Structure formats: C-alpha cells, structure tokens
Amino acid sequence: MRVHVLLLLFAACEKCKSDSCSAEDVSMTYIHKQWKPPVQKFEKECMLETGLEQYVLNEFYESPDIPDNYHFKCQLKCYGMKMGILSSTGDINVEKWVDLFDYMNVALAEKCVQMVKEEDLCEKSYLLVKCVNDELSKQYPS
Q: Is 0.85 topped by the overall pTM?
C-alpha cells in the first residue's frame, strides 16, 4: 500500500523535489519557481548582457505567464547557452534541458523543439519555453 501511494505521489508531481509536494500544490507559478535554482548563478551576468530589468524576471517567477519582452527572451537565450542547452547554431540539447529543469521530460522537450522553427535565438528560446509552459499549463492549471 505504501509503495502505491508513493508511486501515485511521484507520478502526480513528476520530478518534484519537495517532500511536501502534492498534486494540488502544483501550479505554473510553482513550476516557474522550481526553474529558478538551475539558472540563478547566471541571472546577474545574463541581466547585464541582455539589459533585462529585475521586475520583468520577477513577473515570470510570480505568475503563470511568460513575459513577452525582448530582453526576457534574450535572458532565456543567455541561460540556455551558458547551461549548454542551446548552441550558437540553435541546436537544443534535449537531455540536458530535461536533466536540469523540474517538470521537463524528453517527450515534451522534443515536441517543442519540433514545433519551434525560428532563426533568432532570443525568439527561439522564448518560443521553446512558451511551448513548454503552454503544455504544462494543461496539466497544471493555475
């Protein structure tokens, strides 16, 4: 019985790292906050590079939406490149993306990579994250 409960909790939370996680606790705002630790060490460096203002980044972490802001889009590109997820030619390392970010899985990442055909790397980064956000929003409505 205990194993079944643990398996159900794990399935509901996917890669949730919190011991107190339950399916009811998960929202897109919660997921956005879970995505902060992997990028945090690059945050200031990328903000200097992109000119992103802190309030725009805060909007992302405090809401279920993705800011439609060019500096934010380039912030995502900067993170992707610094983390080895995005190459300078626009290739995506799906395995690394999935390994680094909670709630990501290979099928979702590959679906978004196939859907997004964009040359501009800032826009591509944004569209990939938006695709993931839109798909996860179906599972975890806010």
A: no
HSE-up of residue 72 (Cα within 13 Å, Cβ side): 17
What are phi and psi for residue 105, nearest 5 degrees? Answer: -145, 165
- Contact between 132 and 111 under an 8 Å Cβ cutoff? The reply is no
What CATH architecture is 26-139? Orthogonal Bundle (1.10)
- Please give the structure tokens belonging to residue 5: 């409960």
Q: Find the range with the poorest average confidence among 10-24, 43-57, 79-93, 96-110.
A: 10-24
Q: What is the pLDDT of residues 50-83, one digit of tens each?
A: 999 999 999 999 988 899 999 999 999 999 999 9
Quickly tell me which residue has 């992103």 as its tokens.
Answer: 52
Residue 66 region, left (φ>0) first, then alpha (ψ -120 to 50), else beta?
Answer: beta
Of 46 and 141, more confident: 46
Contact 9, 21 (CB under 8 A): yes
CA-wise closest residue to 133 among 110, 108, 116: 108
Identity of the residue numbered 137: S
Instruction: Write the CB contacts of 137 (distance below 8 Å, at least 6 apart in sequence).
Output: 28, 64
